[in-house]
Amino acid sequence: MNSKLMPICVLVIAVGSGAASASECSSLDSMRWLLGGWLADGDKNTWRESWTAISPKTWEGRGIEASKSNPGKQSTEELRLVELGGSVFYLAKVAHNELPIPFRLVECGDGRLVFTNPAHDFPRRLEYERQADGRLHVRISDGGDEGFTLDFAREPRVSAE
Q1: Considering the domain 6-154 in this protein, what is its CATH number?
Q2: What pTM was estimated for this model as a whole?
Q3: Cα separation of 139 and 149, whole Å?
Q4: Looking at residues 40-45, what average pLDDT do you find?
């Protein structure tokens, strides 16, 4: 095993020690609706999140937050969804953490995904919920009252001319 991946695998195994609430939570198949680009337009910032399937068991994602008042100011995070050991994990690599932070998929259903990592400082819970109108609400929280929600719409597809 690659020595750089060892710490990530240890983190994933540690976070994944509990049991999933549904068997669908062990596969990326039921969450294909998440693939593609999403845009949330706030008062001060915009957020973009995109997901691409790179294999049946691995999706790569990217999150970008950009300031409206200072267009050059933005933060990014590299994301990954992986099937591993009968579970699905959301890995977030942000600039201020040396290693990716793993979140385990603990709840899934028709258009709803909940990932948790109770050992992390913040966030501890990520909730993705597809709305009837096609929008996507993402709640980022401490697992309680502290947190925020982003309201995403599908990004328009750019056609090749």
Answers
A1: 2.40.128.20
A2: 0.83
A3: 4
A4: 95
